[in-house]
Amino acid sequence: MSIKIDKKENRITLKTKNTMYVMQILFDRFPVHLYYGKNSPKADLTYRARNTSYSPNYEEYGFTYVPNAEMVEFPFYGNGDYRADALRLRDMTSGSKVTEFIYQKARKFKGRKDIPGLPFADANENTETLELTMTDKFTGCTLKLYYTLFPECDIISRYFTLENGGNGDVRIEKCMSLSLDLPDMNYEMISFCGSHCMERIPQITPLFRGNQRVESKRGASSHQANPFIMLAANGAKEESGNVYGFNFVYSGSFLDEVETDFNGTTRVAVGLGSDNFSMLLKPGEEFSSPEAIMTFSSSGIGTVSRNMHSFIRSHILPAEKYEKRPVVLNSWEAFYFDIDEDIMIDFAKAAKECGADMLVMDDGWFGKRINDRAGLGDWYENPDRFKDGLAPFADRIHAQDVKFGIWIEPEMVNPDSDLFRAHPDWILLAPGRDPLVARHQHVLDFANPDVLEYIKNILSACFDGVAIDYFKWDMNRHMCSVYSPVLPPERQDETAYRYMLGVYELYRWLTERYPNAMIENCSGGGGRYDLGMMKYSTQIWTSDNTTPADRVFIQYGSSFGYPASTMSCHVATGIGSLEDKNKLDFGYRTALAGPLGYEFNALKATDELKKTINAQIDEYRRYEHLILRGDFYRMLNPLECGCSAYCFASDSRSELLFTLLRCGNDGGTDMLKRFTDSLKTGKSRTVPESFRVRFAAAKRNTVYKDMISGECFDGDTLRRGITVNVPKEGLYSKMMYLVED
């Protein structure tokens, strides 16, 4: 077992493949944190009382246990610890929100505890869980803390259940799934900032004494933030140094909180927070928090990324629906809303001629959807555009020897829709407030079971009997005026959370109802690029921005926390004319950072362009196993030097796929360039004429042959680094497919 409960020493040790996590039960009542780091017999596991500086203490323990100075496993509000709390519980009878739970017992078991209503990581034969039981004698509540180990990925997940076993109501006013105390503050925080069409741009901020937060209050993990963060020890690099990584298996509002105190210790917490969440528990009711995950590496930022990638591929993502991911041709950038059955049939024929496996019919097929002002909520085919219905149309698509995918946005409604006219009370809207629209749409109240049931019924009436291979599920606005009339006043702060439970319920329903269809998630591009969505979505539309020079930055940032297999990447009209050979080549090689797709008007493609795309798809198939399942190594940071370089490696390291993309100050949107320039990395974006790139994944004493150029390289030379020359101006890409000779 990887979990050891030492009752004699009152010490609990958790071990994964390369890491160790140790806690101690002090005075048989307080779980204190001792160590999280490299699995080493030399690890310092000594408990030390720290400087107390104006901090209250328990008289019977003197200064050997002072809440505000300890490294604790799970901090509570109001009991003498003035730092960030993980759980704040209000007793509704007395009004007190002082929270204190006392340790009772620990047990370990194989597998994991399921989390009702929420996505969570799948267990395998190696998964083990530690359960700590704690009680609050005043409220009668029982708290169970769970630590679930995924040893092969060096991942520990954290979550809790809270049961109200008392006689009165209690309210959870702050909920953090994970809290970790570290003995020093010598770290830089790596987090994502961004906006629509510029998602997940990495920024680095040194820790300072005080509180730093990454959060979303939008009802979605959002384009502007992301729950993934790292703490990298000062001096840590891609392949060296101590680094911690954290993430959250949830798709709504969240809080990542990092605080350093007067002792120079650091507390990091991940969870729902308090601004957009509270939960009332009546006697006998139980609440389970979403799952948060953490990992550690003593060998750099890149290893933390690879830990996360391996975990997501093995324990989060749904099983593959097809032997190979379909290369899709999406209709959006070709036609926008102007589609009908005949156009789509011709488009399917063109998709086949280009070598694509699937046609995806995007927006414009349902209700009165001729623009973005009408139709959302009316999930039935537009009879003027699909006179015989969807089922025979889908059969005609399949007759062209391509799969059929379709776009939906079930969480939203246009004011100009049959659904809204019938049920204007089915949107999120606070009493007495004027509704605000975004993209001419409102958010449906998925906290209302009637709304959820209606959406299930209208989707099944539309899609049952239709041979659908793929759903693209979109969500194109964030929440405001969050209120649900089906909830009583004392439960209104639960609305956003209950909304997400409704979303997850609909995802599960869709996957069960149409088990042969894969799902691609989208939220205005990458607005819900998170582990909650990845539980149900094989891949996610990385960004609405398809300009390759911009995608270089977006894909670079995304790679810190998420594997390439989740990153839907299309060659699209954002590159300009597809007839421009250089731009097409650069766009294609940029898109080889994830599952490949295309967005352009294939009806206007020349025979030469179709031939080129066929060749691109054939080449992608040769590399696909590396892109979807290989280990990922970042080699050049485009924020620093205007070039991105990275490598995919097979498990055996017998295959290496290297890509260099020179974007520099060329191409891209002015908005994104201004945004990335504002991060002030301290280094010039002027692109050098050559780079030294190290292949950390290369094997020693091995000869590799580049199957593209025919050139051979010694593995030791690759590890030391080779020089790659780039032109002075313009977009440039270079690939090497290195195979052990």
> What gyration radius follows from the Cα positions, in whole Å?
26 Å
Structural class: alpha+beta
| First-last Cα distance | 41 Å
Mean pLDDT: 95
Shape estimate: globular
Give the percentage of residues in beta strands: 25-35%
Largest sheet: 10 strands, antiparallel
Number of strands: 38
Name the poorly predicted regions: none
Count of DSSP helices?
Answer: 14
Helix content: 10-25%
Explained architecture:
- The chain is of the alpha+beta class and 741 residues long.
- The chain is 20% helix and 30% strand.
- It is built from 14 helices and 38 strands.
- Strands 6, 7, 8, 9, 11, 12, 14, 15, 19 and 20 form a ten-stranded antiparallel β-sheet that branches. Strands 21-22-23-26-27-28-29-30 form an eight-stranded parallel β-barrel, surrounded by four helices. Strands 5, 10, 13, 16, 17 and 18 form a six-stranded antiparallel β-sheet that branches.
- Helix 8 links the parallel strand 27 (518-521) and strand 28 (539-541).
- The chain starts with a strand and ends with a strand.
- The mean pLDDT is 95.
